[in-house]
Records
---
Amino acid sequence: MSEWLLVITSFGYVGLLFAIAYSADKLGDTGRSLVNNPYVYTLSIAVYCTAWTFYGSVGRATETGVSFLTIYLGPTLMAVLWWLILRRIIRISKLYRITSIADFIASRYGKSMALGGLATFIAVVGITPYIALQLKAVSDSFVVMLSFPDPEVATTPLRFWDDKAFWVAGLLAIFAILFGTRHIDATERLEGMVVAVAFESVIKLLAFLAAGFFVTFMLFDGPQALFEQAAEVDQIRDLMLLSSLPGGYVNWMTLTVLSMLAIVFLPRQWQVTVVENVNEDHLRTAAWLFPLYLLVINLFVLPIAFAGMIYFGEGTVNPDSFVLALPLAEGYDWLALFIYIGGFSAATGMVIVATIALAIMVSNDLVVPALLRMRGFQLSANADLSRFIVNLRRVIICLILLLGYGYYLLIADTYALVSIGLISFVAVAQFAPPILIGIFWKGASRKGAMAGLIAGFILWGYTLLLPSFVDAGLISRALLEHGPLGVGWLNPYGLFGLTDLDPITHAVFWSLFANIGLLVGVSLFARQSDIERIQGALFVDVFLRSERDTRFWEGTATVGDLQDLLGRFIGQERARQTFASYAEEHGIALSERDHARPELVGYAERLLSGSIGSASARVMVSSIIKGEALSFEGVMEILDATSRAIEYSRRLEQKSRELEKATDELRRANERLKELDHLKDEFVSMVSHELRTPLTSIRAFGEILLSNPELDAEQRKEFLQVVVKESERLTRLINQVLDLSKIESGAAEWHLETLDLNQVVHEAADATRQIFNDTRVDLQVHLPDEPMIIKGDHDRLIQLVINLLSNAAKFTDADDGRVDLVVKPVDNEWLELRVQDNGPGISDAEQRKIFDKFHQVSSQQAGKPKGSGLGLAICKLIMDAHWGDIRVESQPGEGATFICEFPTAGGEHCNLDPEEKS
Amino acid sequence: MQRTERIVALALLAALLFNYPLLSLFARDGWVFGLPVLYVYLFSCWLLVLLLTGLVLRRRRHAAVPPRQGNGKDSGHV
C-alpha cells in the first residue's frame, strides 16, 4: 500500500478527531452538552482498550491461549463493585475538587505535598512504558501496512524524522494541548476530549469486529469450522485449555486482580471515570455496558489468533500484527486500511487521555508546589499566574510524549505489546492500597502511605522495570541469571529465593505486600496530625456528612486578599465573578475590606484546589491567613454541630408532621360527630313520620267505626282488618327501630358461637319459603358441600338472611322472578354470601344510599315504597358486628346482587385487628 | 442497605466463577456447539455477571400495592 495514502488517512483521521472535539466543545459552551449521557460516559471509559487490546491480545493468545481475557475479566469484576467504591471516590473528588489520583492521595493524607509529588512521579514513570507501547503499535502497524508481506523493511528507521511514531507523538501533543488545556481549572470538564475518545471507542470496536468477521466468516466457514481446523494442530489445541498458561492459576488470578485495580487506578481511567463524570447515576449504566463492550471486542481475538497461526504457520509473521496481515495477505487492502485506523484510534485515544491526565498531575502536584516552595517566586508573582500554569501544562504534555517516545526507542522493540503494558499495570496498582484503604479506614496515616508507596515503587522498579533494561541489552544478562554482583537472593525475578512465580506475579506479590504491610503497619503506630485526621474523617464519612461549607480556618483574611489570591491563579475577572455569584447565592454583601467568613475561605481553597492541587491550595490560602488553621477537635465540633443541627431540624420536621396528622384526625372526628348529630335529627323526624302514617290510618278507621254503628258486618270486618294490619306494621316498625337502636348503641346482646353458615342459610330459607310460594318467585339455594364455619350470632344471622331474601322477593316480579342464594369461600380468610335477584336493579346513586336508615328505593324505579327502609340498615349493622362487609352490585334493569363477606375467623373473637383491616 | 449486600454477593460469585477451582472444571478438551468448552464457559459467565450487575443497579420504581378490594371498609361497633 502506498505510503502517502497511509499518511493522508492517518492525518485525515486525526483531523476528523479535531473537528469532533472542537464541535463538542462548542456545543458544551452553548449548554447543549454531549457528555451528560451514560452512553458517551461508557464509551469514554472504553479508552481502556488500547493498541494492547487491538494488536497485543492476539499476540498474547498465540502464546498463552485464553489468558489474555484476564485483562478484561478483572474490569468486569470491578464494575460490579463500582457502585460501592467508585461512587465514593467520585463523590469525594467532586466535593473537594480533586483532579487526579496524586491529588486524591495527597488530599486524603493531610494535603501532603510530598505524597502528591511522589504519586505523580510514580504515575509518570509507570505510564511512560504504556505510552511507548502505543507509539510502537502505531509505528509497527504502519510498517506492516506499508511493506507486507516483505518482512525485510520492518525495522525501526535510523533517523527519527523518518519515524512515523515521532510524528504521531507530535500530532497527539497538539491535540492534547488544544483540547486538554483550554481551562486552567482541571475540574472543568474536557468535553471535546471526552467526545473524541468516545468516538474513537466506536471506531476501534467496529474495526476489530470487521477484522473478526472477515477472518471467521470469509477466510474460514464460521467459528466452528475454524476451531475444528485449529484443533487438528497440536500446538493450537493446547491453547484452548489452560495448560499453556505460564504460572498456572496463580498467574491467572494475579492478572485478574491487577486489571481490577488498573481499571480504577490508571490515570487515564481516573480521568474519564472520576474527573469527567457528570452524574453518579451514569455508573448504573456503565457498570454493565462497559463489560459488555469488553466482551464484544474480545469475541474474535481467539479466532483471529488461531486463523493467523493456521494461515501463516510458525514464525513468519509477528502475531501482534495478525489483525492486519490476514486481510492484507488476502488482498483486502481497504479492509486492512479500516482496521489500521481502528488500531490507530485505540492507540491515540489512550495517549491523549493519559498525557492530559499526567500533565494535570505533574503541574498541580509536582511543579506548582515546587515553585511555591521557592520564596522568591511567590513574592514576585503578583502577575496573572493562570496563563503561566496553562503554558506549563502544555510544556509538560510535550515532555511526557517525548519521554514515551524515548522509552519506545530504547526498549520497545524487544518486547511484546502486552508485556510492556503489564509493567505499567503493576506500577499503578501501587495506588490501590493508599486509596482503597484510605477511603474506608480513618486510621490510615500519611507516614504509612508514604512508606508503603515508596517501598512498593522501589520493588516495582527493581523487579519489573530494571529487567526490562536487561532485555533491551542495556544491562548485562547476568543480573537475571545470578543476581546483582552474584548475590542470588537479590535476583530481580526471584527476590529472597522466591523463584516459583512468573515475573509479573512475583513483582505484584512483593510490591503490594510491602505497600499494604507498611501502610497498615506504620499507620497502626504513627500519630496522625490534625489535618490528617480531619481529611481522613471527611473522606471516610463522605456519605454521612456532605455539607460543602465546612470551615477549616480560624484565622482571618480580608475578602480583597482572598479575591486577589484567587485571581492570580484563575484570572482576576473570573475571581470577581465567582465572588459576586457566591455573594448572591448566600444573600450577603462582600466588601473588599471585610473579613472573609470561614465558609468563604474554604470555598476559595476548594476553587484553588481545582487549579493547582489541594496541597498547593492549602499553602496559598495559609499564606494570606493570619492565625491558625483549626484543630481536629475544632473541625469535628463544627461538623458534629452541623450534623446535630440537621438531626434537630429533622426531628422538628417529624414533630410538625405528627402534629399535622393529629389535627387532621381531630378535624375528621369533628366532622363525623356533626354528621352523626345531623343523622340523629333526621332519624327522629323519619321515625315520627313513619309512625304517623299507620297511626293516621288506624285512627281514621277507628273513627269511622265509632261514628257509623249501622255499618254492615262485612264492611266492619274489612275496616277492622285494616286496623289490625296497620297495627302490625306499627309493631314491626317499632320493633325494628328498637332493634336498630339496640344494635347501634351496642346494648344488643350478641351470642357469638362457632356455627355453620350453611345451616343458618338453610333455616332462613325455610322461614321465607312461604313468602316465595305466595309471590311465586323461584328461590334457588346453592350451598357448598363442606361446612362454612364462622363465628357469629345465630339469630342475628338468620335475621340478616331473611331480610335479604324478603327484600329480594319484594322487588322481583311475581311469576317470572328468580332469586339465587350462593355461599362460597373467597380465599382462606373470607367467605361470601350472595343474594342475586332479577328485579329492576338499583341505580348508582341509589346504591350509595341504600344502606342508610329509612332510605327507600325511589318510587319511579320500584313502584311505591315497599318497606320500612330499615331492613338493609340493620343488615349493615349485623355485618359490621361480624367484622364483615356488605355491598351491592347492580346494573339498572338487570337485577341486583347483595354480597356479604365474612371473615372465617369471625366475630369479636377473631384475630383480625380492626386497625389493620382499615 | 440491601443493594450493598447484593453487590458484594455478586462480586463474590463472579470471583468464584472466574477462578480456580471452578475454572479448572472447564479447562478440558471438549466442545459445546462446536466451540471449545472453556471459551464458551468464560464468555457465558461474563455475560451472566454483567446482566446481573445491570439488574442489581437498576433504579427501583416505587410501585404502590393495590389494597384488597371490598374488605377495606370501617369495622363495626360491637
---
Amino acid sequence: MMSLFFRDLKLSVRAGGGAMIGVLFFMTVVSVIPFGVGPDLNLLSRIGPAILWIGALLASLLGLDRLFQAEREDGSLDLMLMHETPLILTVFVKCAAHWAATGLPLVVASPFLALFMNMDEFAIGATMLTLLAGTPAITFIGAVGAAVAVALPRGGLLVSILVLPLAIPVLIFGVSAVYAAVEDPAPFLPPFMILMAITLFFAVIGPVAAAAALRHSAD
Amino acid sequence: MSDNSLAIRKFSDLANPTRFLALADRVLPWFAALTVLAFAAGLWLSFTTEGDYQQGETVRIMYVHVPSAWLSMMCYTLMAISALGTLVWRHPLADVSAKAAAPIGACFTFLALVTGSLWGKPMWGTWWVWDARLTSVFLLFLMYLGLMALNRAMDDPARSARVSAVLVLVGFVNIPIIKFSVEWWNTLHQPASVMRLDGPTIDPEFLWPLIIMAVGFTLLFFTLHIAAMRNEIWRRRVTSLRRQAARNAGRENLVP
C-alpha cells in the first residue's frame, strides 16, 4: 500500500506535471478576481478567504478525472480489481496520494495568494487550516465522480458537474469557519468541527462508493 | 398458495418487461382518469376557497408549490430505492424506473423553484435568497441534471444504470438535509406546517385543497412515471432490434 501511495505520488508529480497545473490554475483564478471586482484592498481582504476557497475547489476538480483514467487506459485498473487487497483500501490510498499531489500544494500555495488578497496573518492561518481540513473531502467526493465517469471517453467536464453539488457543503463550512475565526463574536469551532466531520464522513463513503462504481463499470 | 408468496410472485412477475407492459397498459388509463378527477376537484377547491387574511390571493401559489416540492423529494427517494433494486436485487426494471424518474423529478424541482420564487417576490420582496432550503433544493436540481447527463453519456444501458445507481445513493445524503434544513438553520423559509408529529398547524380551509392537490400531483407523477418507463422499455427494444438488423445486414453483405 505504501508503494502504491508513492507510485501514484511520483506519477502525478513527475509525468505531465498534473500536480503543478492545479496550483497554476489556482493562481490564475485568484489573480483574475481583482481584475474583475477592482483593486479595492478593503473589499479584497473581506472576500479573500471565499475567493481562496472557490479557487481551491475549482483547482481540485480540475485534476480529478485523471484519478482512475490512466490506470484504466494501461490496464492496471483491472489488476487492482483482481488484487487481493480490498478495492476500497486501494481507492483510499489512491485518493490520499492524489490529495498529497494536488491538494497539499494548493494548501501550501494559499498563503502566498492570500497576500494578493491583502489578508492579515490571522486570516491567512485560518484559511490554510480550513483548506487543510477541507480539501481531502473534495478529493474523496471527487473519487466517486471519477469512478463513475471512468468508462467515458471524455469524462472530465462531467466529473466536475457531478461532483460540484456534493462538494458545496465543504465550501460553505470551510468559508464560514474562516469568517468565524476572523470576526470575533462568531465561534470558530462549530463550523470547523462540521468541516472535519464532512471530511471524515466522505473519507468513509467516498472510497466505498467509488469502489462499487469501479467494479460495476469494469464488467 | 398463501397470500404472502402470491404477493412475492406478483412482484417478481413484474421483472418480466412484457408483463410489466401489459400491466402498464391496464393501469395507465385509470391513473390518468384519477389524476384528472383529483386535479379538477383540487383546482376547483383551491380557486373557490378564501384568500389568506395576510397573504391575500398569492396563498394559492401554495397549492402548486408545496406538492411540487414534496414530489421533488419523493422522486429522488424513489430513484434511491430503484438504485438499491439495481445494485442489490438486480431487478431488471429498477434501472428503467430510475432512468425514467430523473427528468420528471427535475421538472417538479424546477416547478417548485419557479413557483417558490414567484411566491417569494410579493411575500419576501425578493425573487431569490441564498437560504438553506432554497440552496439545498437548487443543489437537488443540479443533481438531477447531472444524473441525466450521465445517463445520456453512456451507450450501454446496463452499465450506465449500475454506475448512476451508485451516484444516486451518494446523492441521497441531500434529501434529509432538504427536509430538516428549515429546522437546523434559521432561515427565511417557513418551517414545516403539515408534516409534523403534533399534527398540521395549517388552517383546515387551506389544508383540504392542499391535500387534494398533493394527491393529484402524486397521481400525475405515477402516470408520467409509468408512461416513461413504458417508453424506455420500448426504446430499448427498438435499439436492440436495430442492432440486430444491422448485424444481419452486415452478415448478408459478407456472404455474397
